[in-house]
Amino acid sequence: MDTDLIAASVRASSPEIIVIIGACAALMLSLWPHQDQQKYLTWLSLITILLASAQTLQLSPRPVNIVETTYSGMFVVDAFATYFKMLLYLGTALTILMSGKFLQTEEAVKGEYYVLLLFALAGTMIMVSGADLLIIYIGLELQALSIYVLTGFLKTRGRSVEAALKYVILGAFSSGILLYGLSLIYGLTGSTQLGVLNSALATADLSEPMLILATVFLLVGLLFKIGAVPFHMWVPDIYEGAPTPITAYLSVASKTAAFAVLLRVFMGSLIGLEPLWSSGLAAIAVATMALGSLVALVQDNIKRLLAYSSISHVGFLLLGIIAGTTSGMSAILLYLLIYTFMTLGLFAIVILLHRDVRAGEPLTLFSGLAQSHAGLAFMAMIFLFSLAGIPPTGGFFAKFYVLVALIDAGHVTLAVIAVLLSAVAAWFYLRLIMLIYIQPAEPTTGSTAAPATGPTGHARAAILLSAPMRLVLLFSFSGTVLSGIFPAWFLAMARQASLSGLGN
Amino acid sequence: MAVIAFYLIAAVVLVSALSVIMARNPVHSVLWLILAFFSSAGLLVLIGAEFLAMLLVVVYVGAVAVLFLFVVMMLDVDFVELKRGTLRYWPFAVLVGIIFAAEIVLASVIGTADMETNFDASPGAETNAEAIGQVMYTQYLLLFQMAGIILLVAMIGAIVLTLRHRPETKRQNIAKQTSRRRSDAYELKDPTPGQGI
Predict the structure, then answer these.
(1) Predicted ipTM?
(2) For residue A50, with 0-12 CB atoms within 10 Å meaning exposed, 13-18 middle and 19 or more buried, which class applies?
(3) For a tag site, which of A54, A355, B57, B109 has the least CB within 10 Å?
(4) A138: nearest CB among B138, B146, B156
């Protein structure tokens, strides 16, 4: 590898470099005591993300099926990676915007929060651009390590620290399983590069037990990261304990990046082994949807409910992989985009209604919202309709295209099961809407909740509705609505990204 | 000869790794861990990766494990109390362990897979260190840099999670003391008689 190649590689990875430099600059800035420090840090992070996205778009290959690999085949710039990076920028930027006021209410304003979010972004970017199992693993760890710390960021709150500890242990465990599968794959093929794996495994003997073991370990490791049943048990606890903006980040950006890896590895390199994993994955997808939807019915904490809701969405997304076609993949890509909008929007509302970590986030936070804040209530209703998959919203088309891909691929039974289970899932979203519109506002009963003279939860929401929050709501609301009105435009974008052939 | 040495050292690794989690005394656990690292270094020497073996001894035995030892000895944690709860989970853990082991043994016994057996620890170079040096900053540049960033994040994370500013401690602020002006301390008032301030 000579200097020209290195220069080309550095150029290809310039968005990542921008983000890392931005993170280091934010780290320096966080040492400078100033009363407007948080504002500057927010601006710096947003500008970094904006620069990186401009650079990503500039590097994006035209025509789309061109694939540029650099760093001796470890790093790939294709339309698939570009699409996912834009999605990650969106998720991270909205998370940063909704964090400001939350940190202030929790008295946890510290510059490192933004630094770690930017490093997590860099890790996820490496994951989606990785064309080598090793670099994917490194990106995964960079992302995970930053998120572990962010989960425990409210270090005076027991729940946050407990969630962080659980996440570290289970994350390390799943990384171990992933690495074990990785090393077996390396032992069998002599390479970790996805392109080489693809050709080496094309002629492999599928009854070979070692190969089955390797595939299973790899799949289990990745399913752990996206929180599919039966590897989902960490999801509710960690979603509940983490600071709410980080919960939003976890359910959107982390999951998006892990899905990118799952798609690139399983629909790209290990597609030759499809008979080995497709039936198992189908069972897992159904179990994930079923458990996510059914257990969500009995939750009384809004963050736990959203955790189970995200589990059931993961099940739906896995169906797109089972379809195994390009249209299945573009359906997943579209789904992830719409999912980002609607989930972040709903989490922003949860943050607005948030009183205090100690009080938790009971479902009753939502009750009577329509009376006190009609606008917020309407937005919440649209997000919930979208999550449930009810027609005029984006969420419907997200599910619709997955189902179309599934039926086209001949999995009609699975499609029927998916529709039935999403009807179950719709029930608990509708229950929330009922709380918002029908239930009268509950007087603050909990002893730890706001003191009698202090503002009640909904009055606080008005105080918290700051300009960044309005921006988040505007973005996610218009995204959810527009993708429902013009789904074809969004689908065309996703289809273009999935045509790049996954860099193999 | 090499095969016998391999099985001998591998057995020591397994036994010492098991002892790490079985040992009653946490100090013994750490000592077993050091033995496990040492024997793994032996395995690396067997495949000709002497530089990696040296790194393992220097970094893991020399720094990490000794640090563990200090931490374990300094911390006053009642490990017997901590371990009491784990007894309940033993049957499940053993079951899972047996299933895992059976899968792997089965796979390697039935398997006909041709693992890459002719492993060369120093391709295209005289020594292992030279071979690593040739690829580390070229072929594996990205991996190397990202690993460095992970270490940076680990450092930031450790500081974020442990640094506490304690408002109740009273510290002397010399700069504040010396920069104190008379006007900060006194206030001159001129009250008219019979009125007060």
Answers:
(1) 0.88
(2) middle
(3) B109
(4) B146
Round the CA-based radius of gyration of chain A to a whole number and report it. 22
Q: Is B156 in contact with A27 (Cβ distance < 8 A)?
A: yes
Q: How many CB atoms lie within 10 A of CB A38?
A: 20
Phi, psi (degrees; rounded to nearest 5) at A76: -130, 140
B103 CA: distance to closest CA in chain A (Å): 8
> Residues A56, A58, A62, CA angle at the centre, nearest 5°?
105
Identify all chain A residues contacting B113, using CB atoms and an 8 Å cutoff.
188, 208-211
Domain ranges of chain A: 3-443+455-502
Which residue's entry shows tokens 């992989």?
A321
Residue A483 tokens, joined: 């993708």
Helices A111-129 and A37-59, interaxial angle, to 10°? Answer: 10
Cβ neighbours of residue A451 closer than 8 Å, sequence gap 6 or more: none
pLDDT in tens, A194-253: 888 888 887 777 778 888 888 899 999 999 999 888 888 899 999 988 999 999 999 999
CA pair distance B16, B29, nearest whole angstrom: 9
State the distance between the two ends of chain B, measured CA to CA, in whole angstroms: 99
Neighbours of A188 (CB within 10 A): 22
**Average pLDDT value for chain A:** 86
Q: Are A76 and A503 in contact (CB under 8 A)?
A: yes
Tell me which amino acid residue A70 is.
T
Interface residue of A112, A133, A157 to substitute, partner B, most B CBs within 10 Å: A112
Kindly give the confidence (pLDDT) of every residue in chain B, 197 residues in length, as a single tens digit, with 9 standing for 90 and above.
778 888 899 999 999 999 988 887 888 888 999 999 999 999 998 888 889 999 999 998 888 888 888 888 887 766 667 666 667 777 888 888 888 888 878 777 776 655 555 667 777 777 888 888 888 888 888 999 999 999 999 999 999 988 877 777 777 878 888 888 888 888 888 888 887 76
Distances (CA, A) of A409 to A158, A403, A494, B174: 48, 10, 19, 75
Which residues does A104 contact at the CB level (< 8 Å), separation at least 6? A38
CA separation for the pair A212, A204 (Å, rounded): 11
* pTM, full prediction: 0.88
Contacts 24+ apart (CB under 8 A), B154-162: B154/A145, B156/A27, B156/A112, B156/A115, B156/A116, B156/A119, B156/A149, B157/A116, B157/A145, B157/A146, B157/A148, B157/A149, B159/A112, B160/A110, B160/A112, B160/A116, B160/A149, B160/A153, B161/A149, B161/A152, B161/A155, B161/A164
Spell out which residues of chain A touch residue B102, defining contact as CB-CB under 8 Å.
none
Residue A313 has pLDDT above 50, yes or no: yes
Rounded Cα distance between A271 and A200, Å, is 12
Which residue's entry shows tokens 């040992």?
B23
Letter for the amino acid at B86? T
The pair of structure tokens assigned to A290 is 């079923």
Helix, strand, coil % in chain A, rounded to nearest 5 = 80, 0, 20
> In one letter, which amino acid is A218?
L
DSSP-assigned states of every residue in A199-263: HHHHT--TT-HHHHHHHHHHHHHHHHHHT-TTS-THHHHHHHHS-HHHHHHIIIIIHHHHHHHHI
Give which of A298, A381, A153 is closest to B163, Cα–Cα: A153
DSSP per residue over A376-396, as a string?
HHHHHHHHHHHHHT-TTSHHH
pLDDT, one tens digit per residue, over A20-29 is 999 999 999 9
